[in-house]
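Class prep. Write one:
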Amino acid sequence: MDFWQVFWLMVWAFFFVAYLIVLFQIIADLFRDEELSGWWKALWIIALLFIPVITALIYLIARGRGMSRRQMQLVERRKAETDDYIRTVATASPAEQIAQAKALLADGSINEAEFEVLKAKAINSN
């Protein structure tokens, strides 16, 4: 293989992978869309099977704005779920924080002054 054959192989491979990414995004969006009926979803899938490139372009042009809106809603929902989970796991009640600080004081890891600082932080956090 000479340089240009390798070059064009890489260009075509890039476009093929880009097409696959777009195709999977379209299929995911079809299943995510709650407004579209099952028959329309089936019709889009069949069209993607028989006329893939043209159907993908038509889908992106006709439904691209809704596609981005649904993707943003999904991202926002997942971020909210992650934030809620982190909030429930990471935050301890003031009583738990004081108990942990008292265990550290009893263990000798911190002194009395540090215990008072941790206790004040726990009480002032709420």
Notes: The chain has a mean pLDDT of 90. DSSP finds five helices and no strands in the chain. The helical segments are 3-32, 38-50, 52-90, 94-107, 112-124.
